[in-house]
Write a structure and sequence with these properties.
- The complex is a heterodimer of chains A (about 150) and B (about 350).
- Chain A is mainly α.
- Helix content of chain A is about 55%, strand content about 0%.
- The N and C termini of chain A lie far apart (about 55 Å).
- Chain B is mainly beta and about 350 residues long.
- Chain B has two helices and 28 strands.
- Classes of the chains: A mainly alpha (about 150), B mainly beta (about 350).
Amino acid sequence: MAKNTGSSAFRRVDVDQFSEEKYEEEAVAEDEANGPNETDIQRILNEGRNFDALLHALNTAPLSTKNQLVKERVVQTVLKVLLTFKSNEIDVAVKSLDQPQLDLLMKYIYRGFEYPSDGSSAQLLTWHEKVFSVGGLGCIIRVLTDRKRV
Amino acid sequence: MPDAHSFGVDPITCYSWNKDQTQLALSVNNNEVQIQNFANGKWSLKNTLTDHTQRVTGIDWASKSNRIVTCAADRNAYVWVQESGKWSPTLVVLGITRAATCVKWSPMENKFAVGSGNRCVAVCSYDKENNWWTSKKIKKPIRSTVTCLDWHPNNYLIACGSTDFKARVYSAYIKEVDEKPAPSNWGTTNNFANLMGEFSSEAGGWVHGISFSASGNHLAWVAHDSSICVVDANHGLKLTIVKTEYLPFMDVIWINESSIIVAGYGCVPMRFNYKDSLTFVGKLDDADSKQQPGKVSAMAQFKAMDSRAATDVETTLNSTHQNTIVQLSVFAGGKERCTKLSSVGTDGQIVIWDIK
């Protein structure tokens, strides 16, 4: 028999890929950004400038990259910064952030919840409460709808 | 005081007033269109139009020609004409293979546009020779379901919002029925389906409602990322985005050249002013603000249950609407100087608000 009828590889073809109606995500120019340099962050934290470390992390967030490993690493770095804050410093810090930074911070707070450690959830909940009182429900909604994930 | 009327427990999906707000065409989340008479604050059901076989998604009542156009998830649209008290339908062949989502008559009522899940807008006009409505489709570059649309007062520009997170302005000039269009400050090329502008609120979020101002120089839309965007054609299509702290809005409407009303999941209509930037003015619902002190918290409720054995939990909201507001419509005054506004919600209510 000339035809190979024994192969069932055709069953593993993803037909949805060939559908005309498949929604193509907009091709955003992939940023080579790797997020904040960890040693920099550690150095700033050691100098006791918690807020500056947070600002640096937020301003260099790797939003456009598709590299999941980079994103995971940055989440851990930001989580470390968030947990270094003392509870009374959080309020002041949140009040000095502008709206895009607040939205970004809220994204990191939710990502931080995915990696619980001793006492981290309590601290993150305090962060969440403070950011929510300024950002409101819209801030949380944008964590869910924003296409640029952290 | 807002004037609230209830049509039952089912959500109101879509509605449209007739020319003098004496009749209302609405659908309560089913395949029927009810024509209700509104006289002296009382409602009476006059007709029920049942030709659609699936959920009705859009209704528009043409004020001058007194025709109703309806579209539904059954991929059809009907144009209804009233003859001696009865409404008789004419099927419009849209040629779409997915549900229709919204429909609007053009300002001169010689065309109407239907948005659909087929990633296109079908612009329909009446072909006198063959005595039927034909449609032409605007497709590129819409990449997902069209959720809302609005016509520019010049009768040939149309704006549509879609679930591909973008708002677009197109030319819907059909040479068989339209006069040659004058160039507007949205663009000069006027061929059918020409894209005049494509806008996005950056973060993304489905566009839920879109509206041109009375002059057509401003375009506002609301999206699911709780944002309100305004494009100013007087200043080179300048885009202003406001990311609000409220729950997302489902509809937006201009009440004069510099103010919009937005409403949505927050159940309360809010007013924003636009003058180079968008600023929050206030909520239309006073009842909501009375709630301020002592927010009802879960802790307080459990304490009440424990100390007073109070088993019924307060579930009513302090606002007039008890659930999401779905569609806004001008009730009196037109988009230039709206004095009254109507809103419907998934709580089955229609509320008429006074605009000061």
